[in-house]
Amino acid sequence: MNPQLSPKAIREIREGTCNPLGAPQVTTDLSENIILTSLDDLHNWARLSSLWPLLYGTACCFIEFAALIGSRFDFDRFGLVPRSSPRQADLLIVAGTVTMKMAPALVRLYEQMPEPKYVIAMGACTITGGMFSADSTTAVRGVDKLIPVDLYLPGCPPRPEAIFDAVIKLRKKVGNESILERTKTEQTHRYITIEHEMNLVFSENTGVYLNKTSATVIPSSTKEKITELPENTEKTEMINTEEN
């Protein structure tokens, strides 16, 4: 029968077999117990780890953005928590085509978001108008005509992995910001500022054509009861009897 080992001997055996590095030791060194950092780094670290995007989408790009909420991609691990209120969000991912009718609502949502706030232009239709930039009279040729954009994400539509890449790049930008120098990094101009080549044209339709009667239209029947046959029908009946 093996003699019973003392707790110290058991601890030493476990340290030698299971944990070659040894058990963690509590030190009294100042460098091991105190973390020195700046207010900017602490503030930026807290913000980049808790970006809250606004649940906003206008077209097919939002389907790719909505896929991030599921368990396959799980964008909660980046600290992204989707919010339904603009007053609780600090990230606006414009996913989809922006029309001129939607533009005032988009600007209102952006203005209701608290500072500091960031914008990702997702998809070709959001950045340049995409396939609607040639023929459409209502698509906005670039959302940066309306609000400042921090990061452009091209694609039609971009994959969810591309959105992760854009968020990682935005986190790097947030981590390098300074509270005192924030005004120096604000956007002062907008890219893709080609104006819409559209002229204001008033319609020449006055509605008169709705009341017009065309001469080529067959007149409607008066639905009167026919009592006498015309003469032409009598002649045709006589010809048919003679042929028979």
Notes on the protein architecture:
With 244 residues, this protein is mainly α. The protein has helices spanning 7-17, 30-33, 39-48, 61-67, 103-112, 124-128, 160-175, 231-243, and strands spanning 91-95, 118-122, 151-153. The protein has a 3-stranded parallel sheet. Helix 6 links the parallel strand 2 (118-122) and strand 3 (151-153). Helix 3 (39-48) runs antiparallel to helix 7 (160-175).
Feature tags:
244 residues; 3 strands; Rossmann fold; 3-stranded parallel β-sheet; single chain; 8 helices; mainly alpha; elongated
Low-pLDDT segments, ≥5 res: none
| Helix/strand class | mainly alpha
Gross CATH architecture of the domain at 43-178: 3-Layer(aba) Sandwich
Mean pLDDT across all residues, rounded?
Answer: 75
Order of helices and strands: HHHHEHEHEHH
Distance between the termini: 132 Å
Number of strands: 3
Envelope shape: elongated
How many helices? The count is 8
Task: Kindly report the spatial arrangement of strands forming the biggest sheet.
Answer: 1-2-3
* Helix-residue proportion: 25-40%
- CATH uppermost class of the domain at 43-178: Alpha Beta
User: What profile does the largest beta sheet have?
Assistant: 3 strands, parallel
Strand content: 5-15%
CATH topology of the domain at 43-178: Rossmann fold
Instruction: Indicate the radius of gyration in whole angstroms.
Output: 37 Å
